[in-house]
Amino acid sequence: MARKTIAEPAETNPERDFGVLLGWESHPAGERIMLIMQSSRKTPKTKNEVRDFRYYMTKEQAVLLGNYLFRLAGATAPRTTRPGLIERLFGR
Question: Is the dihedral of CA 39, 43, 47, 48 positive or negative?
Fold first, then answer.
C-alpha cells in the first residue's frame, strides 16, 4: 500500500519548484519503471531551460499514480477489451 506522505515538505522556492509540464516518457527498469518528466518555468528558448526529473517507481506505484490522475481529471482508465472470436481464431 502506498504511503500518503513520507516526510515534511521542504520550504517551497518558486524559482526552483514550479513549472509547466512539457512532456514525459517511461522506460522499464527491471522490476521498476523509470518515469522522466520534463518541465520549464517559461517557454523554453534553449535546451538548458528544460529540466528533466527522473522517478523510479514500482509497477504498483505507477498504477496507483495513473488511477489517481484519471480520477483527478474526472475520467476513468481505459478498459482493455477481449478480442472477438474471429480475431482470436485468426490472430488479428
Answer: negative
